[in-house]
Amino acid sequence: ERYLQAPKYIEFVVVVDNRMYRKYANNSNTIRTRVFEIVNIANTMCRALDVHIALIGLEIWTKIRLTCKSVDDATANLFDEWREKDLLPRKRNDNAQLITSINEYGVYLGLASIGVLCNTENSAAIIQDHDNRTAMVASTMAHELGHNLGMDHDNASCNCSGNPCIMYDGYDDEVSYQFSSCSIQAYRKYLIRRQPQCILNKPFSSDIIAPPVCGNYFVEEGEECDCGSPEDCQSACCNAATCKFKGAGAECRAAKDDECDLPELCTGQSAECPTDTFQENGKSCQKKQGYCYNGKCPTLTNQCIDLFGPDEDVARDSCFQDNQLGDEASYCRKENGRYIPCQPQDVKCGTLFCTRRNKVECTIMNLENYPDVAMVEPGTKCEEGKVCSNERCVDVKTAY
Q1: Which terminus of the chain faces fewer neighbouring Cβ atoms within 10 Å, N or C?
Q2: What is the pLDDT of residues 265-317, one digit of tens each?
Q3: Which helix (H) or strand (E) holds 55?
Q4: What pLDDT band is residue 153 in, cutting at 50, 70 and 90?
Q5: Backbone φ, ψ for residue 15 (5° rounding)
Q6: How many whole angstroms separate alpha carbon 167 and alpha carbon 190?
Q7: Three-state DSSP state, 285
Q8: Domain check: are 176 and 35 in the same one?
């Protein structure tokens, strides 16, 4: 479980073959811009996998290095061998993809081995630059990477909110943006079974060659934080639009209780909101009806309202005397299945008794599966200058 929750990064190298170099009129800048865009889109597609594709290398073959006649097993084997013997000794990487412009119809748009990420000999794939739309090529890149991450093709029972899903086995003119439920399940099984270690290694931001993209969840050169898009950002002290820390003093957590909780403010040095803090326990609150306890002002009346509704009030004092009985409806605490009666001074720290406003009955909340629902909350005022602590009514000055 710890492995599944750990942040994951794929140190990724893209190799552009000579055919693609010639396709774009030998213009390396055009190719770089296109590859950066393809990888960035593929990254958004892989977000559901909680893995970040870090582009640490881009090699453009201005001369023929491998003879790629088709996207087939023979070419894949040649590229695997080239990566192992030529690329890895000079550029460490977790995975590499060769983009070619063979563009032969009737052959594969891409090819990759299943469940091989981090392997020296075949953690790689080949894809075609088969469409002018970068999103279409990005979908093929994500598809082949999906194979490397343990995914097979989707079958009829697999689905995703978009259509088609990324691991669909076939060509569709619509861009696939999402992995199916089957793909994500296969990916998790692969991670648990194989636990590839290379993806736990976080690359240095200085190793990433793509221009920084604010909103891709990865802190790159010139960024202080990156919490995704403004719509997705869960970081209270990171400005999602600028990828900079919010200024010191910006409120990141409002006070949940006007009297007993305190608002938290960003420090200007971190994307995280400081630890929740509150007023000192024992401070008088709600016009002296209660005392602050862990950021709240618990009172008997408010607990009755929470349980039974706005027309409820705390019952008269004589109702609480029943807590000396020590039965299943009136007691202070349970020990080894036994109901322990309250001492006379502690009766307002056991079962909570409520009543309808202006009525005289004693009402309890008696839910079999929730035995603590009907109990007076810790920190509740039980007498003047006293609060409930461990089902006893004790001096507020010594309770905390």
Answers
A1: N
A2: 999 999 999 999 999 999 999 999 999 999 999 999 999 999 889 999 999 99
A3: strand 51-60
A4: very high
A5: -115, 125
A6: 16
A7: strand
A8: yes
Identify which of 97, 177, 75 has the alpha carbon closest to the alpha carbon of residue 144: 97
Q: pLDDT tens across 24-57, in order?
A: 999 999 999 999 999 999 999 999 999 999 999 9
- 288 within a domain of the structure (yes/no): yes
What pLDDT shows up at residue 72? 86
Residues 6 or more apart whose CB falls under 8 angstroms from that of 316 comprise 355, 360, 362
Of 175, 207, 239, the residue that ends a domain is 207
Residues 6+ apart with CB under 8 A from 262: 255, 277, 278, 279, 295
Helix ranges (DSSP H) in 149-237: 181-194
Confirm if 208 and 222 have CB atoms less than 8 A apart: no
What pairs with residue 284 in β-bridges?
A: 291
One-letter identity of residue 196: P
Task: Looking at the structure, tell me whether residues 255 and 272 fall in a common domain.
Answer: yes
Is residue 216, in this structure, part of any structural domain at all? no
Whether 7 and 143 map to the same domain: the answer is yes
Residues with a catalytic annotation lie at 144
**Residue 304, domain member (yes or no):** yes
**Residue 340 pLDDT grade (very low, low, confident, very high; cuts 50, 70, 90):** very high
**Would residue 217 count as lying in a domain?**
no
Structure tokens belonging to residue 4? 């599944």
Boundary residue ending a domain (241, 257, 277): 277
Domain that holds residue 307: 283-398
153 is in an annotated binding site: yes
- What is the residue whose two structure tokens read 């004790």? 394
pLDDT digits 0-9 by tens, 9-30: 999 999 999 999 999 999 999 9
Does 269 lie in the same domain as 146? no
CA–CA distances in Å: residue 85 to residues 121, 123, 196, 238, 380 = 9, 13, 21, 43, 71
Pair type for strands 381-383 and 386-389:
antiparallel
Same domain, 53 and 105: yes
